[in-house]
UniProtKB/TrEMBL annotation:
Keywords: Hydrolase, Magnesium, Metal-binding. GO terms for biological process: nucleoside phosphate metabolic process; ribose phosphate metabolic process. Its cofactor is Mg(2+). Residues 45-183 form the Nudix hydrolase domain. Pfam families: NUDIX (PF00293). GO terms for cellular component: cytosol. This is GDP-mannose pyrophosphatase. GO terms for molecular function: hydrolase activity, acting on acid anhydrides, in phosphorus-containing anhydrides; metal ion binding. NCBIfam families: nudix-type nucleoside diphosphatase, YffH/AdpP family. Belongs to the Nudix hydrolase family. NudK subfamily. A motif (Nudix box) lies at residues 87-108. It catalyses: GDP-alpha-D-mannose + H2O = alpha-D-mannose 1-phosphate + GMP + 2 H(+).
Length: 193
């Protein structure tokens, strides 16, 4: 039996259709016992996205970005978030989109990006799946100051940190972005051993 055999969608209502779509879905779910149970869930319909962590093996450095995030601020985080460069796919292939996003945000034109995994970041409420990449960079690959796109409201600071400093920033709470934490741990295990 597949999951499709255990779910019957009964009703879908759009609650908000602004920047992304918020839906309320009524469905029946067949429990492990075989009993059908009526449930209601709200889902934030968000397009898939990609994130990248550029690293320099010789210098033992990584490139991260720092920017304002309203949801984190609303939740009481009174600082800019340090993150991995990322963006929505906008109907592009993940590898193509992350190269463009990296250049917009960090100013680096990455030649070879390597996909390391995919993950749902908040599968209980958000439909978005992230594609995670790493890419080796050299200082000569910097083609601009980065900073993101002003017309999209981006005001991004580019950070070049040693891998040791970045890992320490996870430990002391200065880096709390899940994308950055996952990618930093990946490069710590697989690149900077």
């Amino acid at each position: 039996m597949t999951i499709s055999d255990r779910v019957r969608i009964k009703d879908v209502r759009v609650l908000s259709d602004g920047w992304t779509t918020l839906k309320n879905t009524t469905f029946e779910y067949r429990r492990a016992s075989g009993e059908w149970q009526m449930q209601h869930r709200e889902t934030y319909e968000r397009d898939n996205a990609a994130a990248v962590l550029p690293y320099n093996r010789a210098g033992r450095t990584v490139i991260l970005v720092r920017q304002f995030r309203l949801p984190a601020f609303i939740r009481g985080y009174d600082d800019l978030l340090i993150e991995a460069a990322a963006g929505v796919l906008d109907n592009a292939e993940p590898e193509e989109r992350i190269r463009a996003e990296a250049e917009e945000e960090t100013g680096y034109r990455l030649h070879h990006v390597h996909k390391v995994f995919e993950a749902f970041m908040s599968p209980g409420a958000i439909t978005e799946k992230l594609h995670f990449f790493v890419a080796e960079y050299e200082p000569s690959m910097r083609v601009s100051d980065g900073g993101g796109l002003e017309h999209e409201g981006e005001d991004i600071e580019v950070l070049e940190l040693s891998i040791d400093e970045a890992l320490a920033m996870i430990a002391d709470g200065r880096i709390i972005d899940a994308k950055a934490i996952m990618l930093l741990q990946y490069v710590a295990l697989h690149v900077f051993r």
